[in-house]
Prior knowledge:
Layout lengths: L3 H7 L3 H10 L91 E3 L17 E3 L17 E3 L24
Parallel strand pairs: 1-2, 2-3
Amino acid sequence: xxxxxHIAVLEKGVAAWNAWRLEAQDVTPDLSDHDLxxxxxxxxxxxxxxxxxxxxxxxxxxxxxxxxxxxxxxxLTGADLSNASLAGARLxxxxxxYATLTSADCxxxxxxQTRLVETIFFNAxxxxxxLxGAYLKRTILTGADLSGASMTGARLRDxxxxxxTLxxxxxxxxxxxxxxx
Length: 181
């Protein structure tokens, strides 16, 4: 459950939140299970924040810093994460369907078991990311760097991989008529 004092700081706006993060560097903010649907959080510092189970549907997170953030099981449907930094973020079992991650840095992020339906990773960095068991339906990975990524059991259905750098020795991805479930 989210810490109400952390929510109060967030409600003051991105500038107040980022200033607080600089002052309280020893605090691990907890926004777990909090509903941030439709919020404009452009440029926010969510580095190492607990967002476990949070709702960030159709949220503006352009240029946000989410390095090491715990977003396991979070609903990020339709979120704009263009140019965001998600290096080392924990996104396992999250829903990033219809999200935009153009030029985002998802290096070493855990995207295992993540739902990525029509997600856009145009020119994104996914080096060393864990995509094991992820469901990528009509996902756009044009120009994405997947070098060193793990994709064991990933299901790619009608994904666009034009110009993508794939992991060396990657077995052919599973394809076929997976149901949307």
